[in-house]
């Protein structure tokens, strides 16, 4: 399956940057980030399966393989890969399964199950599951917007996240209903990632207002990935690219320009 995506500017020979969205969003979460990058980089923004414009068919798949296949389709040999939350996990999986495709990693509040869930993160999961079991989709949307966006997020960011989360729930719940009806559903492959084997420059970013689990994940990755840098944003929760896009653009440009393997604009 070819992931729905934006390629800006299409066919450019500039160094490629892949932006991987969070699990409560889709490629639209990068709308305020992309314009400042595309003057110097080829920006590729996919929708992972079950998000945005990419369906969730009943078959086995690995998100990292989908991203590698998209790069093949676009004729992109390698890229700096920026991942937010779920996208951070997929970026690490891409580096593990297809290391030659990744020049650099920027992990924004990456989502992993290591270290173990904290009580606060488990409480969020329990609350979300209870709302889903009750069929309260709007309650799920409100819970996610409140949890993942910090105090600096504008109303427009909150509305955008609500729309993306609502759409993802519609797609994923429909896939779940189809699975219950015919017994066949999406089968994501489990990909084991050893951060100690990541062999590219990596910047790990955490948010001071994020759940403690994700802050612990960021600290763990920064301590485990060889040579990784760790930055904690005092103003951010879980989705800094939506909370302060201009600040994230500045962070990304600094990271990209500092990498000797990525041509300076």
Automatic annotation (TrEMBL):
Domain AB hydrolase-1 stretches: 15-243
A Pfam family hit: Abhydrolase_1
Highest taxon in the source lineage: Bacteria
Keyword Hydrolase: yes
Keywords for the protein's UniProt record, in alphabetical order: Hydrolase
GO function terms (MF aspect): hydrolase activity
Coiled-coil stretches noted in the UniProt entry, renumbered to this chain: none
Gene3D superfamilies: alpha/beta hydrolase
Cellular component GO terms, alphabetical: membrane
Record-given protein name: Alpha/beta fold hydrolase
Organism: Xylanimonas protaetiae
